[in-house]
């Protein structure tokens, strides 16, 4: 078998990979999407299956009002003492001097849950991880955030002992163990003890095209005791602009039962417009930051290196002791909404799906109109990741709006600033339901059809809506019978839904594009829209 990277396509950033027995687990960041923390499992590192999200109660995670790109940053999954430990950070602010982040701990005896109520740990910095030493002591390792304008914001890696009797930190033990290299922006620490050495793996350089992972080691956990690997970066694509994978860095190391080593890291797969210069524009990552796995070996001096060079490989040898895992061939999804809860592939923003948003089951999804797609507090939207560059997605919606403030339809969505959708609404000039396409590009909202909005026949009980995404661009279509489809003459630039586009003007650029269903009622009457299926088909 071969590992084909990325192993977790679409928005699956900041992987924390561990092995328990013969099974590998990966935890990924979810930021402001619900449920909190994304989990996958595999026995071969090639095929991965999605697990239920561990943070599924508001008592564990309250993100209402969180700005886009805030929320869960870089969770850390570990296993010790017969249970799983999950450290996660809830970040409230993404722009400016402050992050207002809080780190929490939950545990579970079974990866499927139930997961405990959270223990509040601290707020020193984000990207926290828990290290279980071989002497039974435990330590929290974390990026240190310095808000003072006369200091560098990334103030090294802080280590603090964790007391398992009180289940709290010992603040008096806190010390900075490494300041990072001259690349700066040191974050995402994971600590390992191997052959008597403490190895510290950290991300540096930010999480765009200069991203990298660096390694340092020490015989002790004393302050400032770590020395950098002379061969850093351990993994990076800052100097390999033409490789298939880009942005590799932040991640975690794992040993197989037979003693092989692998490293899971985030990565990106940019595409370019035909007019983009190959090296002048590194590209647009509409699928967000994904997860790749590389094979690792050790040199004669005890330093780890990525097999094939620090640029990584698209195809990697699977572990020799891999146990073949059954998983879907791709990430296509067809949902008839028969179950009384949302399918595991669906996500909501900031809060769980509740009666305030609508209800599901019995063959339909009803969304109750709330705020606009730019609303950070009350939003009736469910979405799933783009996980392929080319796909079609469609739905059928029954909706009877009374005024133009009531809208329901199919959306391609990045965050509250950048999104578009095709939707049914009311045109008071014609006294008719109409279909419109609109886009929000930062602070510019555009209705593309205006006086050309497509009239919905009075006898039409429902409208079928479809989007066709083709890497660099996408379009919308409609049908009144589900068989004859009509293209809408609007072609949208997919780059607007990319990490790289959002990063040009906003600090929370960490997620990736979603496709989903939404209902809006700005008039405040909670007008309901009923969707009787959703189909996402990768090409």
From TrEMBL:
Chain segments annotated as coiled-coil in the UniProt record: none
Active site, per annotation: 14, 187
InterPro entries named in the record: ConA-like_dom_sf (IPR013320), GH43_C2 (IPR041542), Glyco_hydro_43 (IPR006710), Glyco_hydro_beta-prop_sf (IPR023296), Glycosyl_Hydrlase_43 (IPR051795)
Domain Beta-xylosidase C-terminal Concanavalin A-like, first and last residues per copy: 335-537
Keyword field: Glycosidase, Hydrolase
EC number: 3.2.1.37
UniProt GO MF annotations: xylan 1,4-beta-xylosidase activity
Broad EC category: hydrolase
Gene3D superfamilies per the UniProt record, alphabetical: 2.60.120.200, Glycosyl hydrolase domain, family 43 (2.115.10.20)
GO-annotated biological processes: carbohydrate metabolic process
The keyword Repressor appears for this protein: no
The keyword Transferase is annotated on this UniProt entry: no
Site feature: Important for catalytic activity, responsible for pKa modulation of the active site Glu and correct orientation of both the proton donor and substrate: 127
Family classification: Belongs to the glycosyl hydrolase 43 family.
Name by which UniProt lists this protein: Beta-xylosidase
Organism this protein belongs to: Bifidobacterium saguini DSM 23967
Taxonomic path: Bacteria, Bacillati, Actinomycetota, Actinomycetes, Bifidobacteriales
